[in-house]
Write a structure and sequence with these properties.
2 domains; MetI-like fold; mainly alpha; 313 residues; globular
Length: 313
């Protein structure tokens, strides 16, 4: 079996395994969904009737197959807290999380990679001291503190942002996009520092390779050696860390979304945990696991494009 067919098969097998584990975990967690819906003062007959209606009286295997069939149709069940389909709640939250994640990823890539190359190129030199210090500060600063600082900066100093006032896309897409920029920046900046540190380390290690010395010996210009040869050979390492960052960002930043009161996946997850909303928790857990598996699959696919030798092997 080739590299890509094997990865595709592994992707579908992993997703099935994720669905099985997700379903099993939420069946053994203490708590009766019927009792949660009806309340602690419900009559036993009412609880039994609702359990029958929800299919909780059926064997686990039958319930899993029924849930899996619904999953294939895009039906994740109904939320106990909101009395809405879980799919609708997830889609509504993703309309916020995905654009914010997209903005954050753009900031991370366009700041993190150049900053990492710069600090690697001018390592232990005066001109590289301040950027390197900023990178260390970005890694050390807690995200909630950074979020509060950015909120104060945009709301009190620049006076162009209202905390907790997310504008719906249907109302004004430009204002909605702008209201997501401060939280996207808060999500991105620590990850810019992480990517820059990772790129700097890979840059310094690759800089000592024999082919770099050979390129300089041939009389190639410094920029040609660094950007055409060295950067090309650390692309796989950069792709790996960007994939991890993207997985983290697409999961919804729980802290930042709650600091800025943004109705994304992270905030929805906190609400589901607070109210023990098992169907909603199950849907979010499946989404988060699916994001990890899918991004890893995309990263493996990009490996083949960056280095065709991987496909051959």
């Amino acid at each position: 079996m080739g590299y890509l067919p094997g990865k595709i098969l592994s992707f579908f097998f992993t997703m099935w395994l994720v669905s099985l584990i997700t379903f099993a975990v939420f069946q053994i967690i203490p708590g009766n969904p019927a009792l949660i819906i009806l309340g602690a003062e419900a009559e036993p007959e009412q609880v039994v009737a609702l359990e029958r209606e929800l299919g909780l009286d059926q064997p686990l295997s039958k319930r899993y197959l029924s849930w899996l069939k619904g999953l294939c149709r895009g039906d994740l069940g109904n939320s106990l807290r909101f009395s809405q389909p879980v799919k609708n709640l997830l889609v509504s939250s993703l309309k916020v999380t995905l654009p914010m994640a997209g903005m954050a990823l753009v900031i991370v890539i366009f700041l993190g990679i150049p900053l990492g190359i710069y600090t690697g190129r001018y390592n232990q030199q005066k001109r590289g001291f301040i950027p390197a210090t900023l990178v260390r500060l970005g890694i050390a600063m807690p995200s909630f503190w950074l979020g509060i600082l950015l909120m104060l900066a945009f709301a009190r100093l620049i006076k162009c942002f209202t905390p907790g006032a997310f504008v719906p896309w249907e109302e004004n897409w430009a204002k909605a996009l702008f209201s997501l920029f401060p939280p996207a920046l808060a999500v991105a900046l620590p990850r810019v520092a992480i990517l820059a540190r990772y790129v700097r380390t890979a840059f310094l290690e690759e800089k000592e390779a024999d082919y770099i010395r050979t390129a300089y010996a041939k009389g190639l210009k410094n920029k040609t050696v660094l950007y055409k040869h060295l950067l090309k050979n650390i692309l796989i390492s950069i792709t790996t860390i960007i994939g991890l960052i993207l997985t983290d960002v697409l999961g919804g930043s729980i802290i930042i979304e709650n600091v800025f009161a943004i109705p994304g996946v992270g905030r929805l997850l906190v609400s589901a945990i607070s109210y023990r909303d098992f169907p909603l928790l199950q849907g979010i857990a499946l989404y988060l696991a699916g994001v990890v598996v899918f991004i890893n699959f995309i990263v493996d696919f990009l490996y083949c494009i960056i280095d065709p030798r991987i496909r051959i092997s």
